[in-house]
Each structure stands twice: as structure tokens, then as C-alpha cells.
Write a structure and sequence with these properties.
Two copies of one chain form a homodimer. Chain A contains nine helices and no strands. By secondary structure, chain A is mainly alpha-helical. The first copy, chain A, is elongated. Chain A binds a DNA duplex through helix 1 and helix 3.
DNA sequence: ATATTGTGCATACGCTCCGTATGTCAATTT
DNA sequence: AAATTGACATACGGAGCGTATGCACAATAT
């Protein structure tokens, strides 16, 4: 392996720490994860961690930002091949439920994130998922397909409903049987935003 | 003060610990709260705590159960003087948003609760709030006013949407101006559950 | 090329906190 | 009244976080 510049080394250790943190936080939860174990697993010590991220919560923030970005990408992908904008919103909604079934996402982003970093809308990563939903709703509203509700409020409600549904599905005995129920209920809920004679309603 | 029986003393110390825990968890969060300080504030030691609640999470569970019960009572009260069952559901929904604005409820029940005790539906307190919503939805559905969605799913979605909206409202700069927006959006969402020609739609 | 400075990270230390094991004294039992 | 139970306090050990300090190497200066 060729010699590396200092900045490259720095980025590499950051990446290693984030990867190790992601694994540890997902498996044990943020509170129970030990910084000593975590860093040792990455071939480093706590010194590197405090130098790069300030403190334990700093690493959590970095991990959350990474996972959040991946979530947004996956949700966008799910909504990409939808016929209409409205179907795109529905697809994105059910994609959120599916995303939240991922234990890693659930633990890190949905449970520990809000508990230790506070409200998601104030995270440095600025919650890419929420931004995507906001944008879709804005478009739909501009086309007159939705009732005139506050865009931000609608996005928050949708995301909140989806992630809570996912927590329920994930904690149940037979996730695969009640997952469709959750998606159906979410679709139902979303139809409440539709303007009266928009013509976009399913059948 | 007259002498007390042993069981009465026991209940009294439990109550004192729960009260102290409730205060400490609300002000500092569960993770940051010190059991030594907490118990000392109640004129006791950690010995009493471990004897009565097993461990730190045991106390959290007890506190959550208490607050959860109060939440359900307040939500029921808000929905009590509604004209119709449907309006009752709407009132309950906006009541949840208002409840979640309470910093104590937010911190203990909505943030630390799920993070440290897991999914609310599996709490020993069995989430009285959720049960109330479930029951209202069941009634409405029996009367044919709602689309045939899964009752549990609908209840989870509604509660999730409401609490997330509240987190958003609470973290904002001007809560009082965006609170009505959140309530309006929730009302909108809920109307998605209404059956087509139910006649219960507002105007 | 040698010296110097700065930086990335490791090591060492103190402090706090949790959980358990043990002790103690009052209340109940017989 | 002696014994036993149980509620709570005290004492102990271990672990973890954050900081202060040290070290080695890279980057720049001369």
C-alpha cells in the first residue's frame, strides 16, 4: 500500500471509528456501548475518538448522519419508479416503514438518536428523509392535489406515523403478517391530505 | 403523625422514590440522572431503590407507568365533552399533541421510555393512551364510519403522528404559532380514515 | 539535510456511577 | 420474650467517561 497523506489518514480513522460506532451502537445501544471496546475493535484507542469527535455523543451524531443519508437514498429509490407524484409519496411512506424495520436504523436513528441528540429536525445532518418528504408534499400542493396544510407539519406527521408503525411491526411476533396492515393504514391516512375532487384517489 | 404499618411505609417510600425519579429524569434525562442524588433528595439511599425497584430501569418503568396513566386521563377528559365519537377522536388526537408539549412527558415517556425500555406496546403499563385510541377507533369502525383498516395499526399511526408533531412543535422557536398548524394537519390526516359517504365529514 | 514546529493519536489519571454483598434495626411471629 | 423476617443503609468492587499529558512522525522552515 502506498504511503498516504495526513489528511487521508485522518479520514480513514474517522471512517473506521464511525463504522465501529455504528456496529456497537446498533448491537448494544448507545448507552451500553463502551468506547474502549469500540475503539479497540477498530485498532485504535479512545484518544483518537476524542480527538476526532469531541465526545461520545459526537460519534453518535456522525453515525446518525451517515445512516440518515443512506435512509434518504433508499427512500428516494423506492419512490423513483412510481407512476405519479402521489404514488411516489405513498411509496416513500411505505419505504419509511420498511426502513424502520431495520434493527440498525431503529436502534440508532429512531430510538437513541432522539433520546441523546434531541429533536431530529435540529440535527446537523438535518434529516435528509424529512427533507425529501417535505419536497414531495410541496410539489403536490403546488399542483393543487392536496389540501392546504402546512408542509412541514404534514411531513413530520407522516414520518412520525411511519416510524411508529415500524416500531410496532418490528416488536410484534409475526412482522410479515402485520406489515401490510401498517402500510394499508398509512395509505389510508395519507389519503386524508388529498383535496376533495383531485381525481388522484385510487379507484 | 400516627404510627404507620409496615406496608404503608413501604408504599410511602415507593411514592417518594417515584416522585424523585420523575423529577430527576424529567430535568436531566434518564441517562444523566444519578441514583445517589435522586435518592438522597428523597431522604433515602440507593439501598431503598434497589430493594423496591430492582434497578435503575425498574424505577424508570414505574415512573413511566405513572405518567402514562395521567396522560390517558387527561386525553380522555379532553375527548369527553365532544359532540360525536368522531369529534372525540379528533379531540383526543390534538390532546396528544398538547400532552407531548409537556417537557416532562416528552423527556420521560416519549424519548427515554422507548430508548431504555423498548417498544411502548410492550411496557408493563401497557400504554393506556394507546388503549384509549384503540377503543375509540373500534367503536367508530363498528358503526361503519371508518374504512376497514386494522384497529391497532390505525391507533399506532395516530399516536405516532401526534407525538412526532409535538416534538416538532416543542423544538420550534414559536410553539404557539405552529401548534394550530400541527393540529390542523393531524385533523386532515385523520379524515383519511373516514369511510366515503359517512356524512361525518366536517361541513 | 538538519532543526523546529505542529498534529494525530496513545497513555495515564481521577472521578462518578452502577450493581451487589453485607450489615443493622425495627416490626412481626410464636 | 426470643426468634425471625424484612426494609433499608453502608461498604465494596468494577467499569466507564472525560481530561491531561506524552510521544512519534509528518510538514515546514532554514
Amino acid at each position: 500500500m502506498a504511503a498516504k497523506r495526513r489528511s487521508e489518514m485522518m479520514e480513514e480513522t474517522r471512517a473506521k471509528l464511525i463504522a465501529a460506532g455504528r456496529k456497537a451502537f446498533a448491537e448494544q445501544g448507545f448507552a451500553a456501548a463502551s468506547m474502549d471496546e469500540l475503539t479497540a475493535g477498530a485498532g485504535l484507542t479512545r484518544g483518537a475518538l476524542y480527538h476526532n469527535f469531541g465526545d461520545k455523543k459526537g460519534l453518535l451524531a456522525a453515525v446518525v448522519a451517515q445512516v440518515d443519508g443512506e435512509m434518504a437514498a433508499r427512500a428516494q429509490a423506492a419512490a423513483a419508479d412510481a407512476g405519479s407524484l402521489w404514488e411516489g409519496l405513498l411509496a416513500e411512506g411505505s419505504a419509511y416503514i420498511n426502513l424502520a424495520l431495520d434493527p440498525e436504523i431503529q436502534r440508532i436513528v429512531l430510538l437513541d438518536g432522539p433520546a441523546f441528540l434531541g429533536d431530529p429536525s435540529q440535527w446537523p445532518s438535518q434529516n435528509a428523509c424529512l427533507a425529501a418528504t417535505r419536497q414531495k408534499i410541496g410539489q403536490l400542493q403546488a399542483e393543487g392535489l392536496l389540501k392546504p396544510v402546512d408542509v412541514e407539519a404534514a411531513a413530520r406527521l407522516i414520518n412520525g406515523a411511519a416510524l411508529n408503525a415500524a416500531l410496532w411491526v418490528a416488536a410484534s411476533d409475526a412482522p410479515q403478517t402485520i406489515l401490510p396492515k401498517a402500510v394499508a393504514a398509512l395509505t389510508c391516512l395519507l389519503s386524508g391530505f388529498l383535496a376533495e375532487g383531485s381525481g388522484s384517489e385510487p379507484e
